Amino acid sequence: MSGEVAVTPGQVTLVELCRPENNSLDLDLVAELADAFDELAATDTRAVVLASRGKHFSAGANLARREGLIAGGRHIYDEALRLYAQPIPIVAAVQGAAVGAGLGLALLADFRVASPESRFAANFAQLGFHPGFGISATLPRLVGPQAAADLLLTGRRIGGDEALCLGLVDEVRPADQLRGAATKRAEMIASSAPLAVRSIRQTLRGGLVEQVRAALVRERAEQDRLMRTDDFREGVAAGSERRPGIFRNS
């Protein structure tokens, strides 16, 4: 491993992204995270707290470096699917921003704990391309199709309190209590019979991996198509310059 994923093992294992302060995702980081979960699946770990060091949970993928998303015939979404397929319950502690692919990473967890200052955005349409990381399957499953359409078509940002109202997060706690609350929830899961927990989780998430796999095919094809447009180039430029995009449908 490159050292950008830290693992503190135990019945409740802490898994941290260590690419502060934005914890931007690329193929290597998601693959390292998936490798860590694969190793934990064969241990006594009963639940995982997924967290990040730095200001933000994850500000998403670095779209200016598309070469970081594909290497050796592997795509970042191949590694994301490995994360969806792992068997251990996950509680995500979401500080700061969970944006784009970073939101997708938060959504693959079983539970999310946030603070009022946490920010969530599926800002793909504002960047001129299609959602990815399985979000088109996971977000409607979590908040319902109408709320998902609102968030995906507008790309608007919401805070922790609105995320709680929508069902996007399960708890909102002050920032300094965020990890403690996530750990407490994970400990409650870990206190139950582990074979039963994994069995129940598999039932509750039945079909999710297949749904995500199908969604990723569509998401990747549409992202590849839209990334060749002028609107995408304008969206990325506008995002980096912190201004509204001027889109010309081309």
List keywords for this structure.
single chain; alpha/beta; 6-stranded mixed beta sheet; 3-stranded mixed beta sheet; 11 helices; 16% strand
Mean pLDDT score: 95
Query: Which bin fits the share of residues in helices?
Result: 40-55%
Instruction: Examine the coordinates and then state which fold CATH places here, giving the name of the CATH topology.
Output: 2-enoyl-CoA Hydratase, Chain A, domain 1
Order of helices and strands: EEHEEEHEEHEEHHHEHEHHHH
Rg over CA atoms:
17 Å
Instruction: Identify the CATH architecture.
Output: Alpha-Beta Complex
Query: In total, how many domains does the architecture comprise?
Result: 1
What is the CATH superfamily?
2-enoyl-CoA Hydratase, Chain A, domain 1
Strand order of the largest sheet: 1-2-3-6-8-11
Shape: globular
Proportion of strand residues? 15-25%
Measure the end-to-end span: 41 Å
Short description:
46% of the residues lie in helices and 16% in strands. The protein is α/β, with parallel strands linked by helices and 250 residues long. The protein is globular and about 55 Å long.
Notes on the structure:
With 250 residues, the protein is an alpha/beta fold. The protein has a single domain (1-176, 194-250), classed as Alpha-Beta Complex (2-enoyl-CoA Hydratase, Chain A, domain 1). The protein is built from 11 helices and 11 strands. It has helices at residues 27-40, 76-85, 101-107, 124-127, 135-143, 145-154, 160-166, 178-190, 194-204, 208-226, 230-240; strands at residues 5-8, 12-17, 47-52, 70-71, 74-75, 90-94, 97-99, 111-114, 119-121, 157-159, 171-172. The strands form 3 sheets. Strands 1-2-3-6-8-11 form a 6-stranded mixed sheet, sandwiched between helices. A 3-stranded mixed sheet has the order 7-9-10. Strands 4-5 form a two-stranded antiparallel ribbon. A hairpin with a 3-residue loop joins strand 1 (5-8) and strand 2 (12-17). Helix 3 (101-107) packs across helix 5 (135-143). The longest helix has 19 residues, at 208-226. The radius of gyration is 17 Å and the shape is globular.
